[in-house]
Design a protein that fits this description.
By secondary structure, the chain is α+β, with helices and mostly antiparallel strands. The protein has one helix and eleven strands; from the N terminus they run βββαββββββββ.
């Protein structure tokens, strides 16, 4: 039997269950209602902020505020690296971009500041 319960909005687990009007994720322990999930999604889509609290938009330019190790490589993206024409995406790494000398990359908004 297939259930129509939503996946967990935190870890995307398909094993959610309903308990007393709440949806519960057995993998990460997150509890939510459909209303709270809809509110969270509408807020997240509108407000991705940089390290200083400035709202970021598609096409903005940002500067990296700390040295970032590149996963799977021995190279580092140095502090002060400028990144042009960012694209905002859903997920833990919420900025999709191309960095000169590194290529396509995803960054966390907490490690950049808007130029």
């Amino acid at each position: 039997m297939m259930s129509n319960l939503p996946n967990c909005p935190t870890c995307n687990s398909p094993y959610t269950y309903e308990a007393g009007g709440l949806f519960v994720c057995p993998e990460c322990g997150h509890e939510w209602t459909l209303e709270s999930e809809a509110e969270r999604n509408s807020e997240d889509n509108k407000t991705i902020k940089d390290a200083n609290g400035n709202v970021l938009n598609d096409g903005d330019s940002v500067t990296v505020i700390k040295d970032l190790k590149v996963k799977g490589s021995s190279s580092v993206i140095k502090i002060g690296t400028k990144v042009k024409n960012i694209r905002l995406i859903d997920g833990d790494h919420d900025i999709d971009c191309k960095i000169d000398g590194f290529g396509a990359m995803q960054l966390k908004s907490e490690f950049v500041k808007k130029i």
